[in-house]
Amino acid sequence: MAVVKAKKFLGQHFLKDLDIARRIADTLDDFPDVPVIEVGPGMGVLTQYLIEKRKELTVVELDRDSVPYLNEHYPALRGHIIEDDFLKLDLLKIYNSQFCVIGNYPYNISSQIFFKVLDYKNQIPCCSGMLQKEVAERIAAKPGGKTYGILSVLLQAWYDIEYLFTVSEKVFDPPPKVKSAVVKLVRNKRQSLDCDEKLFKTVIKTGFNQRRKTLRNSMKPLLGKDCDAYTDPVFDERPERLSVADFERLTNIVAAFLPGRQDERK
Q1: What digits encode the pLDDT tens for the residues 88-142?
Q2: pTM of the prediction?
Q3: When you count CB atoms within 10 A of the terminal residue's CB, does the N or C end of the chain come out lower?
């Protein structure tokens, strides 16, 4: 069967450098007995090294041209290829306990993939792979920088994150217009937040929706224009200055002053 052509609408850029593919596969070596889901295997450049490691492997591929190619060239995958959209899958129907996630992630959905990983954070001890450099930097960013944002805080609440290395656009077919990077996320020991998790997400998103403003201004959709909570110094800060712990504390302040909670404080 002929090679599979990369499709722009699927965000496909096929990796040609085998050494990089091997290094990505190696990111899961600390979890040798944990099953793996690979997202978007394409023509199997990363898949072949996962197979070599004798991991329990399932691949999820939306491209209908790639599926017969994978079946033909990688017999070990037969019966372990899911032709579907990773973002729409119930991953617990693939593995009902722990599993790792890996991939050369399609550029157009890489952020969404990591948000989905968060939905399964108690089942995913490690998630690694390659994505565009800009998103990788955002995921690994520390408080205080321009790249630190919603994805940074939400992922760092639950995962220890390493930016491993940068990848040139020249090792892909077709070459993307941006550089790529490989990251590794390992689940931390946190079992719960010191605040309401749903409100935590809302507070983070509300804050970064107006990231150039102080929290006194950006929190108005939640707390209104004139709220007694604004006397706390945290509201003088911009959201990119706050750590995960700071956002937990902010969430608890917001919770206490949400409209309808006044009577509870009296």
Answers
A1: 999 999 999 999 999 999 888 999 999 999 999 999 999 999 999 999 999 999 9
A2: 0.92
A3: C
Burial class (CB in 10 A: 0-12, 13-18, 19+), 169: middle
* Residue 260 labeled ligand binder: no
Is 252 annotated in some ligand binding site? no
Q: Is 226 annotated as a binding residue?
A: no
**CA 35/CA 125 separation, integer angstroms:** 11
61 known ligand binder: yes
**104 marked among binding-site residues:** yes
Could you give the maximum distance between any two Cα atoms of the chain, in Å? 73
Burial 207-244 (b: 16+ CB within 10 A, else e): bbebeeebbbebbbebbeeebebbeeebbebbbbebeb
| 28 band by pLDDT with thresholds 50, 70 and 90 | very high
pLDDT tens, residue by residue, 207-246:
999 999 999 999 999 999 999 999 999 999 999 999 999 9
From the list 133, 154, 153, the residue with the least C-alpha distance to 144 is 153
**What DSSP element (H or E) covers 20?**
helix 18-26
- Cβ-Cβ contacts under 8 Å for 67 (sequence gap 6 or more): 61, 81, 83
Cβ contacts of 158 within 8 Å, gap of 6 or more: 118, 121, 187, 188, 190
